[in-house]
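Fold it.
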Amino acid sequence: MIRYFFCFFYVCFLQCFSLAQSTKLDYTIAPWFENKKAAASLTFDDAVNGQFTVALPLLNQYGFKATFFVTIRIIPQQLGDWHLIREAAGAGHEIANHTLNHPYLHKLDDDSIRKELMRCNQLIEMNIPAHKSVTMAYPYGDGGNETNYEQKVRSIVKENFIGARATRNRSIPYNPYNFGTIEDNYYTVNSDMIADSASMADLEKHLDEAIEAGGWYVPTYHGIENGWIIVSKKIFEEHLQIFDKRKNELWIAPFEDVLKYHKERNCASLKVLAEDKNEWTLALTDTLSNDTIWNHALTINLSAPEWKIKNIRQSGTTIPFIIEKNRIIFHAVPGKNRIIITKL
């Protein structure tokens, strides 16, 4: 009886193992979300009035989600209160850290730098429930170079942020795809400063260079129609039209989302856990430890199996998918939640 049970168990094991190996796992994780060629993040510094009264309605009209790096001291001067910032957050825009008082951080001692950063985060999260600020922009763009003082600032920023934006700290106006091969580079993301003095031709040229290179373009705006470093409403809308014409090639998303996707994608892998006559179970994992922060869906391009697919699920939720050129294309979040592909 014992021998019979062992043989039965062994045969079942071999059958299950054979099934698990029966569908070849051939996949890629797209460099950018939705298989777009490049990425762009529209960013705004300081919390200037026109960003929320002029730019925000236009952003919503075009369906673009942006990042507003807010300076706390400026909010009562420019906006009076937080209601416009809360509206932006409610519409899906990122509200992020641009310090409490907009100082030159390198002129402060370590504790004062931490106070500038953490008090800003506390007030953002206090005034926008359930919103967590995980990225920041250096005041005056001062943090993206290799001086000793900027390295010190970055070492403190790394304590509580997943990345940071500088300005004009590279010889090219965009970030090449391999910018994150060194961890420190996530804290020196380059930005192109925008003003009316920047010609339309230059913006188009820089954006097309980023698309050609498969990189990440991050323009920085300040005043829209009013404030400082002003871009008129007319010019700003023309800029949005330039982005809109390229949206089939360009993933336009908040700074936080693009940074998360880039880092997750480059340390993620997909493998088969099990397969039977009804389901195919896959695991999408990465090497990042905090799944509550590193939680952006990745675009998976998977060779289509011989059998037909009924649905794909993760965490009990059905995932939309398409089949294109013998590839299944879907989005899934790396982590502990398995991907279940049900056979038809």
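The chain has a mean pLDDT of 92.
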